[in-house]
Amino acid sequence: MPDPTTAVRDLADSHVAQACAADPQLGTMLGVAPREDRLTDLSPAGQRERDELATATLARLRGLEPDGDDERRCARLLRERLATGLAVSAAGEHLRMIRNILGPLQGLRNTFLMMPTDSAEDWAVIARRVARVPDALAGYTESLREGVRRGLFAAPRQVDAAIAQLDAWDGWFAGFTAGADVPPALRADLDRACAAAQDALTGLRGFLAVEYLPRAEGTPDSVGEERYLLHARQWTGAHLDLAATTEWAWAEYHALAAQMRAEAGRVLPGAPVLEAMAYLDREGPVVEGAEEVRRWLADLTARAMDDLDGRHFDLAPPVRVLETRLAPPGSAAAPYYTRPARDFSRPGRTWLPTLGQTRFPLWTLISTWYHESVPGHHLQFGHWTTLSGRLSLFQTSAGSVSATTEGWALYAERLMDELGYLDDPAARLGYLDSQMMRIIRVIVDIGMHLGLPVPEEAGLGPGLRWTAETGRAFFGAHTTRESAFLDSEIVRYLGVPGQAISYKLGERAWLAGRAAARARNPRFELKAWHMAALSVGTLGLDDLEPELAAL
After folding, report:
1. What is the top-level taxon of the source organism (predicted)?
2. How far apart are CA 380 and CA 534, in angstroms?
């Protein structure tokens, strides 16, 4: 029998190589270009170049016949991701992309956090790249001006959030490079580059506040059904029935509310949920100090790796390396993860935004850190990184679908509950709070963007529709999280339509795929299924459940 061909994988790998040339920040994120000193062209011309590459790759893909399961999955992913990206671009979304997370500004700053800083040569590369920040921001401004010309605006709420972030970033580049031990000439280069970058950020802030914001006045927070479905496809890889999704979300909401009431009684007998949460905020286990909580979270991750490795998963040695860091000022409120470089020269990293806090109740952090580290994001991305000999880089990183990755991370939280790691009432209430936050995201994200009526079961009163205000009120009625966190979350949902729903929809697909595989296979073994499931690479939700069910 002839060996299977790898024509589709070769095409996908060729596409990633060309994409990294057209989008140098992607190369840094993937860890394939550690000496890259260019920044991505954020102008309309830069977007056209990337679109032309996607179009050419799709044309070549049409002439190939996939051979084997890995090739078949790769072809479907490549086709869906590139076609969806082109549709988003054709709608002009890049011309009004102002967000508090997952946007061009955040991507630019995060690029520097992923660059090596071990030597003077590394810092020389950084100096050259920082010097290119003004050009990158000029290209971004050009795209926003083109959006203005076409009547495509970001909502004022997003612009205000971006201005606030830029204020918080004042002096960031100088602070980032301050600790570099470099020769005097390179120090002078770094200082000049940082000053120019700061001037460019200040100039962008002025453009947003003085020129853009007044013209964006009246732009609604919501994007409407047509744009929402397009964005949701970008984040989920699925064509969604929004009415059915909302109906399912409300059923999940009521089931979770019942579980939370029961768990609150274990925390504080007779207390309602919010009272039990407030009690844990005041009286529950706590860590004082940002550096102290960073170390605590690193220890939690190390214990999880020790417990799970060999029993529930097989962790390759480089996957067992993970850094826990504090997020830089001006980050969005939610913890996050950055993946390792392709060769693990840069490890995976979890990031905790402190929002200026110095006191950290632990009941909300435990399941969150399983989500971000192991068995969540780091296990998935780390394992994918070990599969470079078998899968395309597109399948394991560049083509990642949020619903597959965030769905796995939320599934990982549930798995730790199933395995008994969240039996403590406080930790389990924190886990259920996390689940509730994600299902509320589905309800309010769809509701706000489509302007749907607020149902009576929301408890907010009659005759209302979902807006930023009603979404914030509904969210706030179910949590004791800080106001700054809740405000940041609402801005996030409105600025990144469809991303917030990817968590629970992805988890639903992972659970359904597991249930179907268990029902089909009388010899089903969970560890083997997990490792097989993690080895198929990323998939859109239209494909994920059936592929998992067949394992």
Report:
1. Bacteria
2. 6
Q: In what order do the strands lie in the sheet with 336-338?
A: 322-326, 348-352, 336-338
pTM above 0.85, yes or no: yes
| 460-503: pLDDT as tens digits | 999 999 999 999 999 999 998 888 889 999 999 999 999 999 99
Q: Tell whether the model's pLDDT for residue 2 goes beyond 50.
A: no
CA 167, CA 165: separation in Å to the nearest integer? 5
Which residue(s) pair with 326 in the sheet? Answer: 352
Give the C-alpha distances (Å, rounded to integers) separating 170 from 138, 199, 205, 211, 492. 18, 10, 11, 20, 21
CA dihedral over 378, 21, 189, 187, signed as positive or negative: positive
State the Cα–Cα distance between residues 127 and 134, nearest whole angstrom: 13
The rounded mean pLDDT for the chain is 96
Kindly report the backbone phi and psi dihedral angles of residue 37, in degrees, each rounded to the nearest multiple of 5, phi listed first.
-120, 5
Per-residue pLDDT band at 82 (split at 50, 70, 90)? very high
Residue from 394, 380, 318 nearest 32 by CA: 394
CA distance 174 to 181: 14
- Please tell me the predicted confidence (pLDDT) of residue 482: 86
